[in-house]
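Example (one chain per record):
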Amino acid sequence: MALEAELKQIDRKIDNLLDRVVEADSQSLVVRYENRIKELEDSRIVMEEKAAQCGRTLADFEKGFRTTFEFLGNPHKLWASEELEHKRMTLKLVFTQKLPYHRKEGFRTAPTTIPFKVLEGIRDGRSKMVGPLGLEPRTKGL
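Predicted structure:
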């Protein structure tokens, strides 16, 4: 399977970089190696998730649609679950990237996904309906 081969390749790259970190004399090289290792570990997580999804049948559309709108209606319900997987899923559905962390200030807010941006726009009154006359200029009938 292609995903398994890519996972093995990523693991080999990580092992090679770890060997280089041990042998490196320069602190700037060590930092570069560590950053590259972090990137590879992130890509390995993505590959593992893809491999876990491989071969699964697609869910029923109506069930997925209902579940989506239940989540959008109350994301805290899924977050409050005792399951760690539910919390991870909530983070993935709400934020476009991992939550940034600052050593002195703690977690920072990451950008939200499109559905939440749309809902925020509706809530703030930035969304308006098209008037009864429409957007195009009036024309005389033929």
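Caption: The chain has a mean pLDDT of 84.
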